[in-house]
Amino acid sequence: MKFGITQSFSCSYLPNEEERLLVYAEEDAFLSARYSQLIQAGFRRSGEQIYRPHCVSCNKCQSVRIPVDAFAPSRSQKRILKGNATLSVKLSTSLKPEYYPLYERYINERHSDGSMYPPSYEQFDNFLSCTWMAPHFLEAYDNDKLVAVAVTDVLEDNVHTSALSALYTFFDPDYAASSLGTWMILMQIEQARSAGHHYVYLGYYVEGCQKMSYKHKFHPFEQFIDNQWRLFTKKPA
């Protein structure tokens, strides 16, 4: 496999740190299958790009995945499930026009201090769309009102790589008290279990970044450390 290394740039997660990426650089007719392999080695997708952090002096970005069959919701997650019992979910395989206004409002009201601000449709389309991996969209509705969307990659369905990868979730800021971010992960876990997938990948946990701390709240979880997956278990609370 061929890889390239980007130049260093300001880290999106940690102040005063520089970020650098290792990027898959081959033109491959079977990129979806290749990605299913590379995600097991800590890689991630953004748009067409398959990458993994490769920083000079920092290794705090570590991939996290949930073993679906072993997962058990904590008491607080059970309360979230109960509190959102009136919501419904639907699965879509197409990018719908109503997604972007929801995303735009979410970024403007929830992440105006982040790297995705200010939002634009071009930015939105570039990091979601992919010619070799068509994402699925898990939609949440309050009656007929769209309140959240979880963008999800479905990795190749075989004994080693059967998994979902949670790419990004955005929701109506008016529902912030309902913990929709956590609830949508719980829905993705349930979707994975129903489809017989082995894992849900949550992307990178970043030590020292409060915004990423939620990824350690789903137990048990596995974290990619020193090029191997390590299991972390904890009695749910």
Please tell me about this protein's structure.
Helices cover 22% and strands 32% of the residues. It is α+β, with helices and mostly antiparallel strands and 237 residues long. It has an 8-stranded mixed sheet. A 4-stranded antiparallel sheet has the order 1-4-6-5. Strands 2-3 form a two-stranded antiparallel sheet. Strand 11 (163-171), helix 5 (180-195) and strand 12 (199-206) form a beta-alpha-beta unit. The longest helix has 16 residues, at 180-195. The chain is globular, with a radius of gyration of 17 Å. The N and C termini lie far apart (43 Å). The mean pLDDT is 93.
Question: What is this structure, in a nutshell?
Answer:
Helix content is about 20%, strand content about 30%. The chain has five helices and 14 strands.
Mean pLDDT: 93
Radius of gyration: 17 Å
Shape: globular
> Helix/strand/pairing class, anyone?
alpha+beta
User: In order across it, which strands form the biggest sheet?
Assistant: 8-9-10-11-12-7-13-14
Estimate the strand proportion.
25-35%
Total strands: 14
Q: Share of helix among residues?
A: 10-25%
Distance between the termini: 43 Å
